[in-house]
User: What shape does this take?
Amino acid sequence: MATASSSFSRDPLPQEQRFLDALDQDQWPATESDWNLDEVSLTPEALIELFEAQLMSRHLDLQARRLQARGEAFYTIGSAGHEGNAAIARALRPTDPAFLHYRDAAFLIERSRQVAGQTPLWDLLLSFVASREDPISGGRHKVLGSKALNVPPQTSTIASHLPKAVGAAHSLGLWRRLGGGGEWPADSLVICSFGDASFNHSTAQGALNAAGWAAYQGTPLPLVMVCEDNGMGISTPTPAGWIEASMRARPGFHYLTCDGLDLLDTWRAAREAEVIARLRKQPVFLHMRCVRLFGHAGSDAQQAYLPPSRIAAEEARDPLLFSAGRLRRHGVLSRDDIAGRYRRIGEEVAELAEEAIRRPKLESVREVMASMLPPRRPGRRQPARVEREMEAAPGTMAKLINQTLRRLMAGHPHLVMAGEDIGRKGGVYGVTQKLQARFGPHRVIDTLLDEQSILGLGIGLAHNGLVPVLEIQFLAYLHNAEDQLRGEAATLSFFSAGQFTNPMVVRIAGLGYQKGFGGHFHNDNAIAVLRDIPGLLVACPSNAADAVGLLQEAVRLADEAQRVVVIIEPIALYHTRDLLAVGDDGWCSSDPGPDYRLSPGEPGQWGEGDDLAIVTYGNGVYLSRQAAAELDPAGQRLRIVDLRWLTGIDHDAMYRAVAGCARVLIVDECRRSGSLSEELMTSLVERGVDGERLARLTAEDSFISLGPAATLTLPSRAQIVACARALLAKG
Assistant: This one.
C-alpha cells in the first residue's frame, strides 16, 4: 500500500508534512476532553462534515502559498490552526449575521453547507487571485464574505468590526420594538470573531465595554463575541491567562471557554453560547483557545522571533491532527478514509486554482470604482405622517434643526437617533430638546461616552435596514473614532461590490468662533480627515434654512441612495440671531418646509455683483456677509458663493458662479495646510482663472486657543475686508 505522502501527484509543502507523517503512521494526538458524540449530540456524519470543512480551509491556505510563489495570488494570511471555528458555524443559523475574523475560512465553508448552491472553494480562490468574478468583493480585496450567508466582508481589521457587531445586535431588539422589519429574522443573533492580539486594541475594548454596559442595564443584546486565542500577535506573545483574567468576571457578559483544537468541545460551547444569546438575548464571550500555524502571513518568517522548540510544539497542536484522531478513536473513519479525503480535497482545490488564475481581473479605473457608491433603493418616507405643526416664525439654526429632526422622525419610522446627551438633556446646545419625550428612548438613544461605540452602533443599525442619525458632540472628539467612518462605514459598499451597505447621517458640532466656551477641544477646524475618505459626503450649513435643506437631503441620501453623510454644524451659529446689529434677526430663517433639499454640489449665492466673488462656507459666510456690508453697502459689487457641500463639489458649477467676476477671494476657516481652499484654488486655476485674480484667506496652521485669543488664528471680518480691498485694488 502506498504511503499517504507518496499518493500525491505534487510535492507536499513543509507546512503539511506533519499531517502526512501522522497519516503514514496512523498516529494521532488525543484531545484533553473525553467527550463522546452522544454526550454533545453530534452525529458521526456531522463530525465528518466538520473535518472536511477543516480540510478545505487548510488546502486553501496551502494553495494560496503555492499561488503566491508563482505570482498568481496576493494575500496569504490564512486560517491554519483556527479551523475549529467550523463547529461554531454549525451551531448557528446561516441567517445569523457574522462579522468574521480573517482566519475564519472554515466557518464560512461550514456555513456554506447550510445554504443550497454555494461554492466556497471556488469563491475563495477567486478572491485569492483578485478576479473581478470574486462574488463578494469583485476582486478588490481578499475578504471573507457572502451575501447569501449573511457574512459582511471584513478586511485586515484590528477589531474595527466589533463596534458595528454590537450595533447590529442592538438593532434586532429595536426592530422588534418598532414592529418588525430589517434584514435578518427577529430571533437572530449576531456573531463576531477576532484574535487575542486584537482584543487589546482600544476599539475592541470599547466594543466590549459598550456591550457590557448595555447588557448590564437589561438591554437585549443577542451577541456572541468569539476570541480566537492563538497566543500570538504577529511576533508578540499574549501573556498566558490574560484573556480569561480580563473577561471571566466582566460585567454584562457570560464567559465561556472551549478548546479550539477539539471539535466536540468547541461544538458544545458554541451551542451553549447560542442558547444564551438567542433565547436570553444576552452577550456571550466565547474564548476559543487555538494555535497559529504557518506564521502570521505568507511573508512572515516566524523563526526570526520564535525558537524552533516553540514552532515544533505549535505544529504538534495542529487541529487537523486532533480531528483526525477523534474520527479514528470513535471508529468513524479509517486511516485510508482520512487519507482519501485529504487527497481528494487537495486535488480539487488545486484544479480549481488553475481555473481561477485564468479568470479576468479588474482592468480599468471605472471597474475598480464601480462599487464605490452603493446602489439605490426605494425611499421609505411616509408623507402622511409628517408633522405640520412647526412654528412659522423665523428661528435660529438650532431651532430649525430641531424642528427638522422632529419632522424627519415622524415621517421615517425607521429613523433612529443616537449620541451622548441627546435625549433627556436635549444635547449640549439644546438642538435635540424634547425629541426623546416625543419619540421614546428607543428611537432617541442616550449613548455612553465613546465615539467609536456611537459610530459602530450606527453602522450596525444601518446594516439591519435602519437609518441612523448620529450625533458627535464635538468635532475634536471624532478623531479618536474616525476609522469607523474611514475603515468601516465608507468602505463597505466598495469591498462588497455594493451587496452590503450601512447608510447613515452623522451630525457633528464643530468649527471655531464659539463664545463662552472654547479652546482646541471645543473649537476644532480640522476637517481634512473627513474630506479624504472616498465616497463620504460632507456638508456644512451656514444658516438655518440651509441646515434644513442639507439635513433633509442627507436623510434622503441615506434612505434612498444608501450614502454615508456627515454634516458639520457650526457651533457658533447654532443660536446666532443677528447679522449686523443687535436685534436685527438678520441670521434667522423661516422653516422652508419638508420638501426643501439641497443636493450635493449645489452652491448657494448671495448678491449679483461682478467685481468680487467670495467663495466660502459655514462661519465664513456669516463673516463675509458682515464684511460685504462694509465693502459694498449698496450690494452692487460683490457676490458670496456658499459651498454648502465640502466634498463632491461641483467645480464646474462653482466656476460658473464666479466666472463673471473680476476677482475671487476664497475664505476658508480651516487650516491653511490641508484645507478646502487648496482644492478650490487648484480647481479654478485648472479652469483658466488667472492666479492674479485669485486670493485666499485661511486659518493659521495652529490649534485654537482659549478665551479672548480664541479667534486670533481664524479669519475675521476685518481680515476679509482687508483681503478684499487688496484684491480689488489690483484691478
Notes: The first strand starts at residue 98 and ends at 99. The chain has a mean pLDDT of 93. The CA atoms of residues 230 and 291 lie 4 Å apart.
